[in-house]
From TrEMBL:
<keyword id="KW-0812">Transmembrane</keyword>
<feature type="transmembrane region" description="Helical">
    <location>
        <begin position="272"/>
        <end position="294"/>
    </location>
</feature>
<feature type="transmembrane region" description="Helical">
    <location>
        <begin position="46"/>
        <end position="71"/>
    </location>
</feature>
<dbReference type="InterPro" id="IPR003439">
    <property type="entry name" value="ABC_transporter-like_ATP-bd"/>
</dbReference>
<keyword id="KW-1133">Transmembrane helix</keyword>
<dbReference type="GO" id="GO:0005886">
    <property type="term" value="C:plasma membrane"/>
</dbReference>
<keyword id="KW-0067">ATP-binding</keyword>
<dbReference type="InterPro" id="IPR036640">
    <property type="entry name" value="ABC1_TM_sf"/>
</dbReference>
<feature type="domain" description="ABC transmembrane type-1">
    <location>
        <begin position="48"/>
        <end position="333"/>
    </location>
</feature>
<dbReference type="InterPro" id="IPR039421">
    <property type="entry name" value="Type_1_exporter"/>
</dbReference>
<feature type="region of interest" description="Disordered">
    <location>
        <begin position="1"/>
        <end position="23"/>
    </location>
</feature>
<feature type="transmembrane region" description="Helical">
    <location>
        <begin position="190"/>
        <end position="209"/>
    </location>
</feature>
<dbReference type="GO" id="GO:0090374">
    <property type="term" value="P:oligopeptide export from mitochondrion"/>
</dbReference>
<dbReference type="InterPro" id="IPR011527">
    <property type="entry name" value="ABC1_TM_dom"/>
</dbReference>
<feature type="transmembrane region" description="Helical">
    <location>
        <begin position="91"/>
        <end position="113"/>
    </location>
</feature>
<dbReference type="Pfam" id="PF00005">
    <property type="entry name" value="ABC_tran"/>
</dbReference>
<keyword id="KW-0547">Nucleotide-binding</keyword>
Length: 622
């Protein structure tokens, strides 16, 4: 879609986003994980304390091989002696060493786990908050299952890196560096044998790690795709079952699962190759140490205790390398997940608020469409729409399916922006106002009412969470909902279930009207609010709508012409244009499309009291 021409300068989203300047597909492991460091800013003091505890714990552990060597020499070189003082002191030092190391290890484990949990909580909040700022266009182009997968599975993958993996990285790094230094200083010649495979080990880790990261990203994408298929099938399970399409959905989900399984196998093969290669190189180096060290002991150049100490240092270094190898795999997986998360965080809404918005505290409700055009991509949906609505007037929109009625009213709260022309509220372009403030003055009652899985009271208060109880009940009474709410098991505290499915269609619609009444909008949109109701429910809902419409600028879309006969203006739309306009009497006299629709409606009402014209059947895009 072409961006609408506008003279307004637009500010970037006010949401502080650590990924704003980061690449969407990081070229390196560090660039992929750097945004996490930005998110961890509030938790950095605890992180540094945890890192210090890890360094102390690892540093103390480096003294263990030296004391073990002394213990061996104290035992074997004083055979037959009754003086155990050296042995006793050495064991005492070992016990003290183990105690201190355990204390610092517990501290670093708790502190870094707390940092990880905090980072993940912050990341989830920011990601979800950012999703709520994106426009309907974004959600039309992305499957819900993929988005929830990034919010759950991908963030969960990152959690391991930001907690336990950080601790492991700190301890293993200290152990590796300290162990290498002690190996070299204690026996340089023997160290050559111990470290001969180190460059090769690092090279293998880098090369194979890149492959693991790439495949991890593929695996996460495949899992997200499978989740999206499952969510679509579950949310539309009635349609699935009514068309006996269980096998179709089972096959679609199965293909996604198999694709993720194949990606998991490829990742497992590369991980196994890395593990096996690293194990051989590591323990092969230890075999060389034992071979050369044993020859030095036999030649009298090295004591048994010194060889044991050196061997323990070599084992620590080998263990650190093996540990870092596993961490590389974990970080590579997290880098793939992080890339998907921050790719999402890098999305920006195409609907912007101006840098200096006009104040809209008490709008009058005068609405004007000035030669408005709108397109979905290259497909024109609206063209040449011009109309003027005075404060408090009611405008009804009728016409065949696909005429553009719902698209037209969706431009008012700026769910989409016009492609050409402009829409004014109180004499100013909608884009001159802050987006949230604009929407706070526009109420919407759709045909398919969306309730949330809380109680009745929370759903009525949805637009005003701080509204007092008296106003909630007053809104419910005005919406003809108070009496049936009191008959529910827990009254206003009754949980309505997911999407309000524990209530009937008429009950959900009246709660939606109460919600709109409590919000007290200046401009009201009624999108076929009664078309799916039976006659009894329709009468109650229509009475509530009449109260809701009083004194508000109202746009009504209806399939039943009887609901729009008293509108101040009736717009007849066809193929994205207004082809007729006027009052009910004027349009009947003029004939044309409105006359045809009215004639069909009257004939059907005489046969079957449905009031629905075949030409006005519902459609996903109107």
């Amino acid at each position: 879609m072409t961006r609408p021409s506008s003279t307004f300068s637009v500010a970037p989203s006010s949401e502080e986003d650590p990924a704003r300047h980061s690449p969407l597909r990081p070229a390196s492991l560090l660039s992929a994980l750097r945004p996490l460091w930005d998110i961890a800013r509030p938790h950095r003091p605890l992180f540094w304390l945890g890192l210090l505890a890890a360094l102390l714990s690892s540093g103390l552990n480096l003294a263990f091989p030296l004391l073990m060597g002394r213990l061996v020499d104290a035992s074997f070189l004083q055979v037959g002696s009754t003086d155990t003082a050296l042995l006793d002191r050495t064991v005492g030092l070992l016990l003290g060493l183990f105690a201190l190391s355990a204390i610092f290890a517990a501290a670093q484990s708790y502190l870094l786990a707390r940092v990880g949990a905090g980072v993940v909580a912050t990341l989830r909040e920011r990601l979800f908050g950012h999703l709520l700022t994106l426009s309907p266009r974004f959600f039309a182009e992305h499957r819900t299952g993929d988005l929830t997968s990034r919010l759950t599975a991908d963030v969960g993958t990152v959690q391991g890196v930001s907690s336990t993996a950080l601790a492991g990285l700190a301890t293993q790094t200290v152990t590796l560096i300290g162990g290498v230094i002690l190996l070299v200083t204690s026996n340089p010649r023997l160290s050559l044998y111990a470290l001969v495979g180190l460059p090769l080990i690092i090279g293998v880790a880098v090369v194979i790690g890149r492959q693991i990261r790439r495949i991890s990203r593929e695996f996460q994408d495949e899992v997200a795709g499978a989740n999206a298929s499952a969510e679509e099938a579950i949310s539309g399970v009635r349609v699935v079952q009514s068309f006996t399409a269980e096998d179709v959905e089972r096959g679609r989900y199965g293909r996604g699962v198999r694709a993720s399984f194949e990606a998991a196998l490829r990742r497992a093969r590369w991980q196994a190759l890395m593990g096996g290669t690293m194990s051989f190189l590591t323990f092969g180096s230890l075999a060389l140490v034992l071979w050369f060290g044993g020859r030095q002991v036999m030649a009298g150049d090295l004591t048994p205790g010194a060889l044991i100490a050196f061997l323990f240092y070599a084992i620590q270094v080998a263990g650190a390398i093996a540990g870092l190898t596993g961490l590389v795999n974990q970080f590579q997986e997290a880098a793939g997940a992080s890339g998907r998360i921050f790719e999402l965080m890098g999305e920006r809404s195409d609907l912007k608020s101006p840098v200096t918005p006009l104040e809209l505290s008490a709008p009058r409700g005068r609405v004007r469409f000035l030669d408005v055009g709108f397109s979905y991509g290259d497909s024109a949906v609206l063209s040449g729409i011009s109309l003027s609505v005075q404060p408090g007037q009611t405008v009804a929109l009728v016409g065949p399916s696909g005429a553009g009625k719902t698209t037209l009213v969706s431009l008012l709260p700026r769910f989409w922006d016009v492609t050409s022309g402009q829409i004014e509220l109180d004499g100013h372009d909608l884009r001159a106002y802050d987006l949230r403030q604009l929407r706070s003055h526009i109420g919407l009652v759709p045909q398919d009412t969306q309730l949330f899985s809380g109680n009745v009271r929370d759903n009525i208060r949805y637009g005003r969470p701080d509204a007092p109880e008296s106003e909630v009940e007053a809104a419910a009474q005005a919406a003809n909902a108070h009496d049936f709410i009191l008959e529910l098991p827990q009254g206003y505290d009754t949980v309505v279930g997911e999407r309000g499915l524990r209530l009937s269609g008429g009950q959900r619609q009246r709660i939606a009207i109460a919600r709109a009444l409590l919000k007290d909008p200046r401009v009201l949109i009624l999108d076929e609010a009664t078309s799916a109701l039976d006659n009894q429910s329709e009468a109650l809902v229509q009475a509530a709508l009449d109260r809701l419409m009083q004194g508000r600028t109202t746009f009504v879309i209806a399939h039943r012409l009887s609901t729009v006969q008293h509108a101040d203006q009736i717009l007849v739309m066809d193929q994205g244009q207004i082809v007729q306009r006027g009052t009910h009497a004027e349009l009947l006299e003029a004939g044309g499309l409105y006359g045809e629709l009215h004639r069909t409606w009257a004939e059907q009402q005489g046969q079957v009291d449905t009031g629905v014209s075949p030409q006005l059947a519902s459609s996903p895009v109107r």
